[in-house]
Amino acid sequence: MVTRTVWIAWRPGIQDNNKTEIQTDMAERIPRVPVREQDPKERASNFDEVCYGYDIQEAMKEASRCLHCRNPRCVAACPVSIRIPDFISKIADGDFAGAAGVIAEDSSLPAICGRVCPQESQCEGSCILGVKGEPVAIGQLERFVADWNRENKAVRPVPAQPNGYRVAVIGSGPAGLACASDLARMGYSVTIFEALHRPGGVLEYGIPEFRLPKEKVVKPEIDDVRALGVEIVTDVVAGRTITVDSLLDKEGYSAVFIGSGAGLPRFMGIPGENLNGVYSANEFLTRNNLMKAYRDDYLTPVLKGRRVVVVGGGNVAMDAARTALRLGSETSIVYRRTEKELPARREEVHHAMEEGIEFRMLTNPVEIIGDEKGWVRAIKCIRMELGEPDESGRRSPVPVQGSEFEMETDEVIMALGTSPNPLIARTTSGLETTRRGCIVADEDGATSRPGVFAGGDAVTGAATVILAMGAGRKAAAAIDRYIRGE
Amino acid sequence: MFRIVKKEKLNPVVYRMEVEAPRVAESALPGQFLIVRTEEKGERVPLTISDYDPEKGTVTIVIQEIGASTEDICAFEEGQAFADVVGPLGMPSDFTEMSDEALKGRRYVFIAGGVGTAPVYPQVKWLHSKGAAVDVIVGAKTAGLLIYKDEMSRYCDNLYICTDDGSEGFHGMVTGMLEELVQGMGKKYDQAVAIGPMIMMKFASLTAKKLGLPIIVSLNTLMVDGTGMCGACRVTVGGKTRFACVEGPEFDGYEVDFDEAMRRQAMYRPEEKEAEPHVCRIDIRSV
């Protein structure tokens, strides 16, 4: 390949005595390779993926920026400890299959994680290059390898020799898939029970198509988990169709992993929340993502307001707002703190702003006002200012007396976070939960009931895909030790 | 896949289907519902369970054609299969938790309207098996639309038919029949249960309250997932927001804000239908 020699020329000589210094110097001279994206104006009215990802040249060039630190901080910061410098060095060498092999040792969902991980606060956030300049684009490189591997079918999952034990996994989201993959690789026969009609959990119902394409990315990655020998049974609601007790006592599973996520939406408890035209973000996103209401050929309806107000500042708020925008609604985000405190990933906020979503900071809804027919007409908000820092260290917002005002709107989407669904805890004997409904589990995912493990949002409350995967992997190791009687 | 083993037409717009769904049949109890999705592009449609047979591994659903999605379901024939049947969903009826001693001799009156008659059936069957005394009022617009008469009379003590046009049984509304039973005939009941169109349940609750009779209603709200994830089904009960899919579908009829529930149920109904004063149309979930 012609281009390759060029990048090799950019890599410093291995024999060099002042290697690190020179490498740093070199890497700083090569700026981070920007990733191509769909034009904001254009993408504001379609559901195609926003980010195009790197091509081969871009990926190899970006890979050449890695310093291959002796004690790579990026690996330590990765919840599933992917050997990042190793796969990056294989990319730089043009050995993409090799890179895919390195990632596959620690992650079964790389095309997904490359897209939705908060790299800026994990691997990339601890990259040494980020101290003086831009960190290596680890997320984009992971995505590149995963996409390349999918298209070229280079590294394929290989089922292990069955060891004769059966493990049940509840929920086919990131925690369940990661747990199931690791167990399957160890030889366990794993069955995943999924409540919805498609596997994937939040990857399927929560994250929009334009950030995480379902047919192109999610489905093939889940198919790879199946290829390891994992069976996925949809349409089974744990706590209703089956119970954890029945899986252990009647169906003969040796252990159960609960990765049921945090699916219960929160509301504010303000007047008018049950007016027609008020959605939880979960409902709005489920209608669009799982049920594909944004497409005319699917039957599930969704309201397309003229003016939509999304309440909240997390990733889910960004997803809901950007979806509403794509449905043709003029969209605003209302958040009670300032832009600095927005809990959403910076990239998501940046994308939302680029696409033309209005941000109303230091604004908090106090009431939703309906018309005579019971439909949303306006949202009444109060202006806020930042006061003293709270326990989380963030300055807590306090209302400015007498500053109430109305914003005209015909659709309100509440994106205020979610809690775990209590269904499983209620129907499982001897399973301890916290006051907030989270399942109590130790570092390894062991719960108060022997043989029952849990991880992901069901334990922590709403968090990220990669943390759930990390918890699923830890639990898989613990389940293996438990079954082997260690 | 969930195969239809038997399909019958109960009246010009209502069908009964027995569907293979072994896990649902195994766990189902009176009061619960399920969700059907016909194919990839279909809606998730909540339907009540009108019977279940754990040994055969089948559940029975009764569906009324009232919109695109229910028409799609009704168009399925014996031998064909639905893409998805998920359940049982919701809480079982309170009485399934009561002891046999408590149920023996306990007096129930059911008020069943239209296609809502079907989910009354497993409740009546259960209570009858526990020795409760069960009267059932079944209402329909006209004699030709009545369903479950024979099935019901097998398990209830008294069956009272009402038709709006007087073509069969009592000429009038189910609420009139209830008043007649309690005030006219001096019947005593410990518990009333109403299942049918929202507007019927509203007036049944008002009548029961007037009569001092406790009443349970089964709310057929809009739903997407049916597992507590979306909140489309939220209703105000006793001033508090509740999720009908996981905390219901059965609630204390005195406490339900029916006007809000009816308004929310109509959220996706086209304007012209909203104006139509046809009771059956209100029944989105087609129970």
Structural overview:
- The complex is a heterodimer of chains A (486) and B (287).
- Chain A has 486 residues and is of the alpha/beta class.
- Helix content of chain A is 36%, strand content 15%.
- Chain A contains 20 helices and 16 strands.
- Chain A has a 5-stranded parallel sheet with strand order 3-2-1-4-16.
- In chain A, α4 (56-63) packs across α10 and α15 (281-289) packs across α16 (315-326).
- The longest helix of chain A is centred in the C-terminal third of the chain and has 19 residues, at 465-483.
- Chain B has 287 residues and is α/β, with parallel strands linked by helices.
- Chain B folds into 2 domains: 2-89, Beta Barrel (Elongation Factor Tu (Ef-tu), domain 3), CATH 2.40.30.10; 94-218, Rossmann fold, CATH 3.40.50.
- Chain B is 28% helix and 31% strand.
- Chain B is built from 10 helices and 16 strands.
- Chain B has helices at 22-27, 68-74, 100-103, 117-129, 149-155, 174-184, 198-211, 244-247, 258-265, 271-275, and strands at residues 2-11, 14-20, 33-37, 45-53, 58-64, 81-82, 84-89, 107-113, 133-140, 158-163, 170-171, 191-195, 215-218, 234-237, 240-243, 250-252.
- Chain B has a 7-stranded antiparallel sheet with strand order 6-1-2-5-4-3-7.
- In chain B, β3 (33-37) and β4 form a beta hairpin.
- The longest helix of chain B has 14 residues, at 198-211.
- Chain B starts with a strand and ends in a 12-residue tail after the last helix.
- Classes of the chains: A alpha/beta (486), B alpha/beta (287).
Give me some keywords for this one.
heterodimer, A: 486 residues, alpha/beta, 5-stranded parallel beta sheet, 20 helices, 16 strands, 15% strand, globular, disordered N terminus, B: 287 residues, Elongation Factor Tu (Ef-tu), domain 3, Rossmann fold, 2 domains, 7-stranded antiparallel beta sheet, 28% helix, disordered C terminus
